[in-house]
Amino acid sequence: MRIWIANHYAVPPNIGGITRHYELGREWAEKEGAEVTLWLSSFNHSRRRFIDDESKRELETVKGLEMCWLWSFPHSVNDFRRVLNMVSFAVLFFLAGLFRRRPDVLFASSPHLLTPFAGWLLSRLKRCPFVLEVRDLWPDTLTKMGGLQNPAMVKALTWLESFLYRRSDKIIVLTEYQRRFIAAKGINPEKISLIPNGIVVGSWESDADKRQECRRRMGVAPYQFVALYAGAHGPANALEHVVRAGEHLPEGYAIVLIGDGPEKEKLKRIKEEKGLHHVHFLDPVTKGEVYDFIDAADCGIISLADNEIFRGARPNKLFDYLYVGKPIITTVDGEIRDIIEEARAGVFSGAENPRGIADAMKSLRGLTPEEKKAIQERGRCYIDRSGNRQKLAQVLYHELRFFHRADPVKEINEAKMKH
C-alpha cells in the first residue's frame, strides 16, 4: 500500500519536535511493507531556522520510507510571515504532489488547515481516499486564546474546518475531547477514530553516565530537586507561572525548561527581573536526548493555559514522562489530569498557580524510593496499554487498509497483475 503523510511540522527523531508521523511511517514501512512518503517542511518551526543538510544526512535509510522536504517561508515571530509559511508549504505540497504517482491513501494532518485542504484537493485529483488527522482544533484554539479576532478570517476557517470534516473519508483524533467536539458538529462518530500520541517502546534505556551529564548541562547541583518542562514555549503553554514558581522555592530546588518558542525571551526576562537563579533555560534537544534529560530530573511538568480548549489535551510530553517513569505535575484539569490520577503517576497543581507548582514539587520530593519505583512501573504499564506507538501504528494501518481494499480499481489492477 502506498501512503502519503503530510504534516507541516513533522520532524525525524534527530530533530526536536513532532516525531509522530515519522515514527508511524517508519513502522508502516518496516512492519507492514508499505511505501510511505512523508511530506514535511525544511524550515523547522520550533527552532525558527532551516534544517541543514548534515541533519538530513544523519538519518538512516529506511526501506519504503521517503522523506520529501519542502521549502516554506521563514519566520521568527507569529506575524504575517507565519501565515506565509503555512500558505507556502500547502501550495508547494499541492504542486509537488501533482507530479507524483498516485497514493492509495492520503493522510494529512493539522494543526493549520491549509495542508489538509491541499491534501483533500490532491486526493480528489488522484482519486484516492482522504484521511484527516486533527492535532489541534482550529480555529477554536486560535479564537479562545485571543490570537485570531478578525471576523472574516474566523468565518473562513470555520467553514474550512467544517468542509474538511464532512469531505474526509476518515478522521483521526488524538484525544477523546476532540472526538466529542467533532461529533457534536454533526459528524458520524463511526467516522472518527482515536489514535493518541505514544512512545516507540524500546527506543531508550536509562544510562547513569548520561544522567549525570544532563544534570551538568542543566546547571543544577547534585542536591537539588529538579522539575523539568520539555516542549514549546508559546502563549498556550502558560510558562510564566512555571518560571514564577521559582519565587516560592528554597535553595534545594530547581526548575529547568527545555525548548523554544515566541515566549522564551519574555520568560528569560522574568527570571532576570526576579533573580531566579535556580530557574534554567536550555535549547531544544533531539527526541533521544529528551529522554535522558527527563531521566536526569526528579519530576516533569505539563503546563497549558487555563482554557477550556485544553481540557482535552494529551501532549507528547505526557507520554515521555510516563515512559521514563517520572512523577508528573500538571496544571491542566482535564484528560491529562484524569490519566495521571488513573495511573497514580503525579499531582494536579492547580491552573496557572505558581505557588501550587512549588508546593507540588515539595510534595513529590517526599516520595520514598518504593513509591518512585511504583510510579515508574505504573507509567510503563500505561504506555504499554495505551501509548505504545508500535501497537497504535498497527491499529491505524489496518484502518487505512480498509480503504485500500475498498478501492475497486485497485482490486482490478492487482487481479490483472496476478494473471
UniProtKB/TrEMBL annotation:
Q: Does the keyword Transmembrane apply?
A: yes
What PANTHER family would the database entry show?
SULFOQUINOVOSYL TRANSFERASE SQD2
Q: Where is the Glycosyl transferase family domain?
A: 218-368
Pfam families linked to this entry:
Glyco_trans_4_4 (PF13579), Glycos_transf_1 (PF00534)
Coiled-coil-forming residues are none
Q: Where are the transmembrane segments?
A: 83-99
Which residue intervals define the domain Glycosyltransferase subfamily 4-like N-terminal in the entry? 16-198
Keywords, ordered alphabetically: Membrane, Transmembrane, Transmembrane helix
Quote the protein name from its UniProt record.
Answer: Glycosyltransferase family 4 protein
Identify the InterPro entries for this entry: Glyco_trans_1, Glyco_trans_4-like_N, Glycosyltransferase_grp1
